[in-house]
Predict the 3D structure of the following.
Amino acid sequence: MDAIEAILNRRSVRNFKEMPVPAEELHTILKCGLYAPSGKNCQYSRFIVLQDRTVLKELNQIVCEALSEIEADPGTPIGFGAARARERKGYPYFDRVPALIIAVSMRNYATSMANSACALMNMQIAAEALGLSSCWRNQLRWLKDMPEIRAFLVRYGMREDEDVFGSLQIGYSAEKQDVPRAPRKPGRIVFDDGQEWKE
């Protein structure tokens, strides 16, 4: 698929078919993450890949329990997540995901978030180009300082001097593919000559 077509067609998907991501496609997606830009070409971002359903179910339970302890303010993203975790015990954040890629990097490095975001976006575009779907997930970043979350991530490869900066779920979409994209909000592009951008 053409790169521009992949970018414009990509949608966030949270419901997946019960099919594993083929190893060759997963390796290609991860390689695209490795080739993302990074400040001073530091290449500090690393990726923890979880595919085992038992492991993902354990992580899902930890996340749900951690979120349910946070104030449920639906006006904020994390508060909305907390409210959802309380309303529906065992909300399926991760346990029905064929593959979860967690971006970790040096905790105090100035460009760790930007580097990780570039890598995860590369992977989302690659997934789309390969006929797979994806969705960025924020929960692990929100909960990164909770001991239970840190202990889990360290067990699966995060280093003590690292934090999680984002995660990405990947699989074959179980959602309708012909849903029209939401229109882009106006006023988001400004030219130096005052010209108005129109899609």
Remarks:
- Strands lie at 46-50, 99-106, 133-137, 162-171.
- The chain has one domain: 3-171.
- The two ends are 22 Å apart (CA to CA).
